[in-house]
Amino acid sequence: MLYHDFSQFMTTHIQSPQARCILALSGGIDSRVLLHLLARYVRDNQCPAMAVHVHHGLSSFAERWVERCREWCAEEGLPFQVAYIQFDTQGKGLEAAARQARYQALEHYIDEGDLLLTGQHRDDQLETFLLALKRGSGPKGLSGMAASMPFHQGRLIRPLLHCARAEIEAYANTHQLSWVEDESNQDTRFDRNFLRHEVMPLLVERWPHFPQAVQRSAELCASQEALLNELLQERFQAALQPDNRLSVRCLLDCGEAVRAQILRMWFHQFGHQMPSRVQLEHISHQVLQAKSDANPRCRIGNHEVRRFAGYLHYIPVYADISDWQCQIKFNHPVELPDGLGTLTLAKGALLTECATEKQVEFGLDKRCLSMPLWVSFNPEGLVASPVGRKGRHKLKKLFQEYRIPSWQRRRMPILLCGQQVIAVAGLFVDEHFSGSDYELIWSTDTSALAHQCQNWDV
Can you tell me which residues bind ATP (predicted)? Predict the structure, then answer.
C-alpha cells in the first residue's frame, strides 16, 4: 500500500522524463524507507535518480553513516554523493542552523525541473505545527510543511507527508531494512525531541486522531495563506522592483495588516528565515518610518533589512573588511576579500579580451606606476578630487552624492598611494591621476551596483 501511494505521488509530480529525483538520504528510518521506495520506482519507470547524504560532522558516528548510506545505495543501484558542510549557529539554534546549512548544500544538486525528495511524515507535521504554535505563528507558520514547494531551480517534495511513523516502521520491518539511529534524536533538550518523546504520546493517547486533525488544520491555514497572497498579489507586485527592492511609499500607503502580509510575501520569495512579529513591527515602525537621513536596519538571522533611497533592501550581514589592505602591481590581479572579485591594473588593450566580463574601467596616468599602490576598503579620513569636480571632498560626502548605500561604502576598493586617493573602483579617478595609459578593472557583479546606485531616487 505504501509503495502504491508513493508511486502515484511521484507520477503526479514528475513533469518531465529528464527531471531527476534527488533523495536527501540521512540514513534514518524515514529516508531509508524512501530510498527503498525510490529504487523500486526507478526500476519500474526508468527515471534518473540519485541520493545525497549531507555530512554535518556533528556526531562521532558521522563517517559510519556515510558508509552505510553508500552501501544501501549500491544495493539499490542508485548513484550516491556526499556533501560535507560546516556551519555556525550565530543568530539561531543548532537545529535551525543545521537545517539551513543542509538545504543550502542540497541546492547544488538541483537543476531546472529536478525534484528533491525528503522523508518528513505526518508525525513530523504534527511536531512542526506545535513548534509554530509555541512561537505564536500565524497562518503561514501553522500551515506547516507542504507536500510540494519550489526549491532552487526545481521543487522539494515530501512523498511520505500523509503517512504515519508507524506505517513507515512497518514497511521497514516487512522489507527487513536497516537504518542508522542518530543519538541526538533522544536528547529532549531539543524542542522537537521534547515534543516527540514527552508531549505527542500523551496527546495521541488522549485523542488518537489528533495527528490527522492537525494535518487538516495545517492544510486550512495553507489555504488561507494562499488566498491572502492571491488577493494582495497586485499590491505586492506594485511595491516590488525588478532587483527585489521594495517600495517604502507603497508600503506606507497600506494599513498595518496589509503591510505585514506584503512583507511576509517579500521574505518568502527569498526562501530564508521568516521574521517574527516583533521583527515585522520593528521594520514597520523603526525602519520604514525612519527619518530620510537615518540608517535603520533590522537583523533577521544572517541577513538584514536596510532602507535606502526610498526602498527596503534585504542583504546579507557582511563581514567587516575595513582593516584589509593589499599592495597592487601592474598586470597582477588582486583577489579581493569576501567574494568581491578581483582588481587589476592593466593596459587598455586588455579590455577587448575581457569584454564579456562585468567590470568597471577607469583611465589612469602612467605616473601612478612609479609609486607603491595599495588597495583598501576604509574611507575614514580620506579625501579626493574626482574628475569633473572642483575642490577636494571627503569620501563620506562623495559616497552620499554618488548615492552609494551605506552598507556598500566599505566594500568598494580604494586605490591609494599612502593616504592619497588615486581612484575608487566603480566610481571615479582622482583628477590628478587621470589618463589613458592604464585601466583599473574591477571584475565583479558588485561593481555594477555602484552605477545602478547613481540612478536611484533619493
Answer: 26-31
CA angle 93, 98, 99 (to 5 degrees): 100
Question: Among residues 310, 210, 196, 194, which one has the least CA distance to residue 251?
Answer: 310
User: Is 437 annotated as ligand-binding?
Assistant: no
27 is in an annotated binding site: yes
- The DSSP line for 30-81 is HHHHHHHHHHHHHHHH---EEEEEEE---STTHHHHHHHHHHHHHHHT--EE
Query: In sequence order, what are the residues at sequence separation of 6 or more whose Cβ sits closer than 8 angstroms to the Cβ of residue 77?
Result: 39, 42, 43
* DSSP one-letter string for 346-360: EETTHHHHTTTS-EE
- Residue 135 to residue 90: CA distance in whole angstroms: 19
Domain positions in the chain: 2-215, 242-316, 325-453
Q: Which of 393, 371, 396, 375 is nearest to 384 (CA)?
A: 393
26 is in an annotated binding site: yes
Joined together, the cell numbers standing for residue 13 give 509530480
Span 199-211, average pLDDT: 91
Q: Residue 31's pLDDT is what?
A: 92
Say if residue 310 is exposed, middle or buried (CB neighbours under 10 Å; 0-12, 13-18, 19+).
middle
**Cell numbers found for residue 424:** 575608487
Does the CA dihedral 143-147-151-155 come out positive or negative? Answer: negative
> What is 358-415 written as a DSSP string?
-EE--EE-GGGGGS-EEEE---TT-EE-BTT--S-EEHHHHHHHTT--GGGTTSS-EE
What are the cell numbers at 354?
575581457
pTM of the shown model: 0.71
Instruction: Flag whether 31 is marked binding.
Output: yes
Q: Residue 46 region, left (φ>0) first, then alpha (ψ -120 to 50), else beta? A: left
Using the 8-state DSSP alphabet, how is residue 111 labeled? -
Under a CB-based contact definition with an 8 Å cutoff, are residues 77 and 47 in contact? Answer: no
- What mean pLDDT comes out for the span 16-39? 91
Does 30 show up as a binding residue in the annotation? yes
| 310 has binding-site annotation | no
81-85, 163-167, 322-326, 442-446: lowest mean pLDDT where?
442-446
* Annotation: CATH topology of 2-215: Rossmann fold (3.40.50)
- What are the C-alpha distances in Å from 325 to residues 87, 190, 322? 27, 43, 8
- How far apart are alpha carbons 320 and 315 in whole angstroms? 14
Compute φ and ψ for 274, nearest 5 degrees: -80, 135
Is the domain covering 242-316 a CATH 1.20.59.20 domain?
yes
Question: How many CB atoms are closer than 10 A to CB 210?
Answer: 15
Burial of 363 (0-12, 13-18, 19+ CB in 10 A): middle
What whole-number distance in Å separates Cα of residue 93 and Cα of residue 387?
51
CA atoms of 432 and 383, how far apart (whole Å): 13
